[in-house]
Structure formats: C-alpha cells, structure tokens
C-alpha cells in the first residue's frame, strides 16, 4: 500500500474527495449534504485551529480538534434518527453553571444530552426541520469556551442571525441552509475585502485602489493602479485554501484571456485560509505555467493583516 493510499484511509482530509469511504457514503445519501454543510460552515465561523477534516468512519463524518480529548467536536449523519449528530467531547464538570440556565428546549437541556460516563454532549439536527434551537445550542456551547480551537465571536453570530432572517421565508429548510452557507461566504468576502484594502493602503498610501471594478460584464473585486501598472486581485472565502485557489484562478483566467477585457500586469489570489504545503506546491506550478504574473496572499490569524506566499 502506497503512502497516499494509507493516508486516505486514516487521519483527516479537508477535501472530502480525499476520503473515498466518506465521499461514497455521501454520494449515496445526497439529502444529508445541505445539512452537513450548514453545520460545518457554522462551526468554521468560530474555529481557529488547524486540526479538522473529513474522516473515513462508516459515513461522512467531519471532526474538529484532537481525537480522544476534551474539546473535540464531531459531526456525523445518523440515518436511524433521520438527522445529523453533533458531538462535543467534554467533561460535564467543565461546563459553566450559566450553561444550564440557557433558554434551550427540553430536548437540548444538558441533563438530557450529556453522557457523563463517556464525557460527551450530543445535539441532533433533523433533516426536514430548520433546527434553529439546535443552532442556538451550538452557539451556547461555543460561548462556554471549552472546545479546543473554538473562539466565541459575537460578530459572527450576529452575521449568521442576520443572514438567517433574510432567507427564512424564501423556501424550504434545505434551501434555507444552502442560502445561509452561500451568504455567509459572501459576507465574509466583503469583510475580508475591507480588511485587505485597509491593510494594503496603509502600506502603500500612494496607490489607487478601486473596489468592485466593472470591465465589460465582469466585476473585479479589487484593481490596484501603481503608475502604469494595473493589478487585479480576486478575493475568495471558502472552506479550504484549495477551494479558494481553484475559484480565484477560474476568474483570473477570464480576466486574462477573455476577448476585449482590460489588460492587467499582475493577478493576485487573496484567500481566507492558510494553505497546506500541497496548496503551496500547486500555486508554484500555476505560477510557473501561466503566462501572467501571479501572487497569492492569505488572511493572517489576527484577521486583519495578510501573508504573501512565496
């Protein structure tokens, strides 16, 4: 067995395509994907760690944090219960007193969800419901500050609630979950664009920076004018750096090759996630083989500055 084959069977992968068993299960049970995506996207809003990904465990399971340790979180489908279970691996003694007084339904009360013997707390999301109370329970649990790698971010909760209210009356629950995921990415890209412009402008106050620049029927995220040089930057907020590079390159190729577009001297990818070493190697290959000059930045952990990939 090759090392790649071995790694595909153990450990975690940010791309479900790298977990054959998980991908096969989801291809046979596609009705679970919108709910899985919605839960994972919600948790990603507050996760600052790097230990996360899909695992081969009989179904399409996603995990955050270290295995077999307090603070871990796993998300996996439960066909027997017609839903998706979120399990927090924590000791009941670590839960602050206020958590027991949160306004949760009887179904989600800690006394009904904790398995004190094995130290975990379960929240079950149902396929055909909006699960608003379950998301509130996730919020309360993250707020408790006992989950490894998670940071309670009130701005992100406000954003999620705002988006949720926008799409609540626009369709069935599956549509609502999908729309929320899309709008979260859209809003986070807007925030990231604000931060990138502010950060780059502080470093280069003499440059002209244009946002949402129209060219033919296209709209470029950022155009930077440095004398006679024009730079086009495409910003992406996705679940992984791999997805961000893929999405950005598609649009940059359009700006570089499409007939009659305004020419640019440089094209930049700006992402929200730290790339893996494989992502960096992929970027270097793209940089070597594309005819235009290419740069790649990603958002720093401080959520305000950006790091260039060399």
What can you tell me about this protein's structure?
The protein has 310 residues and is an alpha+beta fold. 38% of the residues lie in helices and 24% in strands. The protein contains 9 helices and 12 strands. It has a 6-stranded antiparallel sheet with strand order 1-2-3-4-6-5. Helix 3 (33-44) runs parallel beside helix 7 (173-203) and helix 6 (154-167) packs across helix 7. The chain is elongated, with a radius of gyration of 21 Å. The relative contact order is 0.09.
Keywords for this entry:
single chain; 310 residues; six-stranded antiparallel sheet; disordered N terminus; six-stranded mixed sheet; 24% strand; alpha+beta
Task: Give the SSE map.
Blueprint: H1 3-9, H2 20-28, H3 33-44, E1 52-56, E2 60-64, E3 72-78, E4 83-89, H4 110-113, E5 114-115, E6 120-126, H5 132-143, H6 154-167, H7 173-203, E7 208-215, E8 218-226, E9 229-236, H8 241-257, E10 266-271, H9 277-289, E11 293-299, E12 306-308
Helix pairs in contact: 3-7, 6-7
Gap between N and C termini: 33 Å
Q: How many helical elements?
A: 9
The overall strand count is 12
Which parts are unreliable, with pLDDT below 50 for 5 consecutive residues or more? 1-9
β-strand percent reads 15-25%
Oligomer: single chain
Largest sheet: 6 strands, antiparallel
| SSE string | HHHEEEEHEEHHHEEEHEHEE
Mean pLDDT across the residues is 79
Structural class: alpha+beta
């Amino acid at each position: 067995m090759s090392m790649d084959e071995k790694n595909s069977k153990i450990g975690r992968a940010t791309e479900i395509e790298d977990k054959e068993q998980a991908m096969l299960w989801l291809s046979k049970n596609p009705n679970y994907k919108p709910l899985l995506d919605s839960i994972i996207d919600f948790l990603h809003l507050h996760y600052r760690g790097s230990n996360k990904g899909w695992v081969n465990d009989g179904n399409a399971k996603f995990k955050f944090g270290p295995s077999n340790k307090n603070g871990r979180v796993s998300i996996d489908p439960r066909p027997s219960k017609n839903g998706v279970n979120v399990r927090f691996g924590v000791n009941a003694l670590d839960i602050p007193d206020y958590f027991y007084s949160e306004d949760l339904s009887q179904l989600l009360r800690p006394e009904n969800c904790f398995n004190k013997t094995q130290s975990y707390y379960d929240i079950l999301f149902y396929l055909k419901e909006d699960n608003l109370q379950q998301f509130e329970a996730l919020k309360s649990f993250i707020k408790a500050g006992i989950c490894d790698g998670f940071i309670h971010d009130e701005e992100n909760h406000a954003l999620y609630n705002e988006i949720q209210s926008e799409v609540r009356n626009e369709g069935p629950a599956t549509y609502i979950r999908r729309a929320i995921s899309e709008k979260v990415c859209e809003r986070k890209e807007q925030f990231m664009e604000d931060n990138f412009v502010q950060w780059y402008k502080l470093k280069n106050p003499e440059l002209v920076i244009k946002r949402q620049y129209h060219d033919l029927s296209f709209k470029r995220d950022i155009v930077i004018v440095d004398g006679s040089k024009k730079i086009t930057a495409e910003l992406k907020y996705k679940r992984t750096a791999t997805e961000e590079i893929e999405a950005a390159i598609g649009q940059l190729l359009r700006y570089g090759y499409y007939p009659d577009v305004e020419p640019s001297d440089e094209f930049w990818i700006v992402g929200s996630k730290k790339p893996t070493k494989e992502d960096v190697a992929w970027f270097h290959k793209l940089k070597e083989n594309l005819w235009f000059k290419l740069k790649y930045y990603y958002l720093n952990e401080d959520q305000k500055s950006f790091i260039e990939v060399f």
